[in-house]
Amino acid sequence: MMNDGNVTLTLTPAADSPRPLVLTPGQDLRGYLAALLGRAFLFFLTFSSVLAVMLILVFVVIRSLGFLSSSSLMEFLASQSWRPTADPPVFGALAIIVGSLYVSLAALVFAVPLGILAAVFLSDMVSWKVRNVVKPIVEILAAIPSVAYGFFAVLVLAPWLQREFGFSTGTNALNASLILAVMALPTIISVAEDSISALGRELREASYSCGATRMETLLRVVIPAAHSGIIAAVVLGMMRAIGETMVVWMASGNAPQIPHPWWDLAQSVRTLTATIAGEMGEAPETSLHRGALFAMGVLLLLMTLGMNIVSEYFLARAKKAGGKA
Amino acid sequence: MPEEERKDMPTSVLKNDITKPNVRTTTFTIDGRERPANLAGETCTCAVIHSENFSLHYGSKAGVQNITMDIYPCSVTAIIGPSGCGKSTFLRSINRMNDLIPHVHTEGKLLVDGHDIYDKHTNLVNLRQQVGMVFQKPNPFPKSIFDNVAYGPSLQGVRNKGELQNVVEQSLRAAALWEEVKDDLKKSALALSGGQQQRLCIARALATKPRVLLMDEPCSALDPIATGRIEDLMHQLQSTYTIVIVTHNMQQAARVSERAAFFCLGELIEYDWTSKIFSNPAKKETEDYVTGRFG
Ligand SMILES: Nc1ncnc2c1ncn2[C@@H]1O[C@H](COP(=O)(O)OP(=O)(O)OP(=O)(O)O)[C@@H](O)[C@H]1O
Ligand SMILES: [Mg+2]
Fold first, then answer.
1. Mutate-to-test residue for ligand 1 from B60, B87, B136, highest number of ligand atoms within 8 A of CB
2. Quick one: A45 and A110 in the same domain?
């Protein structure tokens, strides 16, 4: 290997006459036009998708305006009684708003620790081979239609909860949040695992070389370093949970009430999404009831917006603390 | 070390005990042998590394083969050789850093303090705490400068803020980085330059107070002044540490090391006093390499 110097070098400059370093006016113009065209095309694509979202937003807001101006916003946000068909109708959405937040938060309480543990387990504890088998399976779980999860909730989970825990009804907040947690898990696991395993061996080696155990390496180096991916995973899971309609409709019991005492997951609740989906067909066009449902849609939008802002805030803060340059 | 050589050292380095590794009795030190004596004749507590027919394979590809050598305590040993010849592989074997790489398997023995570290009863945490490492590629944690250096001590249970600050300062001074970062310890380590990150990793390794220091090209991104200070550090440490350094810089190997090993194609070609390796090597390959006629 030391003396194979018999390979002759044939690397010569590319062209005999060097290409000019100055653009001709024609090239200049063509380059300018191509860049302009490309930019216009991409702008159009981005703009049209943003426009579609904006139009939906405007539509929902406009349709809710009739209700919000003629009826009391105070009643909508503060009253717990939702009787849209009574005479006179009462549109108090508080219990439903709380129900929505309640099942999504409970779902997150189940799903986030479990999801992060599973992600860490897949990326750091099992062999690469096992991970490459398990991860696609987990990701397939995310593609199962929610109505199938709903069937499972009603036909399997509900009777089981009733039998094992003696609940008066099996379709309740616990059932809904458990199923939502199961549905959010694949997303959380997949996104968190990607960001944890993307960190690479060097970082883990650095920690081990200081005399850290695997636990210390994971808790003090790996998970903090992957915080942005983990927060993104949690936000995605939360979005899935709060926007989910079919499963909560089937599993939550649909009673518009705030659980009392507040931690009693065995009571039935109702969510914004299930209310909108369930009552849209019965509410006559241009009625106050219809407007109230649109107002709920606006509330859902505001909630997801608020969640986004909160997660951005945490991301920025974690970035500062974690010392991303 | 003679007194006049110490004059230009920052006083805190003289006062601190960074040059004296913690001596602990651990499950890891299981030999009852007499400690070897260093050149001054006093017994020292450094570890002896003994490798016997040690081979490491990445899958079917050999990283190093049949390495038999003794690395002596209280001295600096240099490993030199062409790129890809297995220097890093061997160095990383000494604290079992290759464990994380899939499909790696080893043969032969590698003893630290008389204990075969590839034995399945080896306490890896204690091994790595005592055999510190500076990696070829700087790999600081995405944390602040302070947290990077304080990581090792805090793992060992140091919670006292003042004590941590002291260790961090001493380690950064020893690694010739203190002056540049002392006002900015909260800054992210990732915002440092490549050479600064390299010195930060040296400081991080020192803060753990190992007994053996493995350094994989620790000066590859450093200017001559910083290089000089790291070499001074090695001189200062060698009376109490066992230091193994991989370097592509022949002058550096000649300057800092007592013994030198020449690796080629995964094998140990020659291992002798550094002065002999550079002036009168026994093997033709070694001579070609050190005189620059290699390849
Ligand atoms: N993670 C790995 N997986 C597979 N093969 C590896 C791995 N790391 C190193 N090798 C192989 O082992 C051999 C020795 O590599 P090593 O990194 O020890 O070389 P080196 O002497 O440190 O080189 P350099 O001076 O360029 O750092 C090389 O042929 C390399 O391709
Ligand atoms: Mg190397």
1. B87
2. no
Residues A114 and A253 in one domain: yes
Residue among A119, A95, A131, A97 nearest A256 (CA): A95
Q: Is A58 in the same domain as A147?
A: no
Q: How many domains does chain B have?
A: 1
Give the model confidence (pLDDT) of B195-230 as tens digits.
999 999 999 999 999 989 999 999 998 999 989 989
Range of the domain at A50: 26-70
pTM of the model: 0.80
Closest chain A CA to residue B136: A202
Contact B141 A203 (CB under 8 A): yes
Query: Token pair of A98, please?
Result: 């709380």
Which residues between 176 and 215 in chain A have a beta carbon less than 8 angstroms from any beta carbon of chain B?
Answer: 201-213
Predicted complex: ipTM over 0.85: no
What are the CA-CA distances from residue B68 to residues A144, B62, B64, B99 (Å)?
58, 16, 11, 21
Q: Which amino acid residue places its CA nearest to atom 18 of ligand 1?
A: B86
In the block, which residue shows the tokens 């690694």?
Answer: B175
A242 vs A248: CA distance, rounded Å? 10
Q: Point out the residues of chain B with pLDDT beneath 50.
A: 1-43, 295
Q: Is the peptide bond before A261 cis (omega within 30 degrees of 0)?
A: yes
Ligand 1 pocket test, pick from B54, B55, B57, B61 with the greatest ligand atom count within 8 Å of Cβ, gives B61
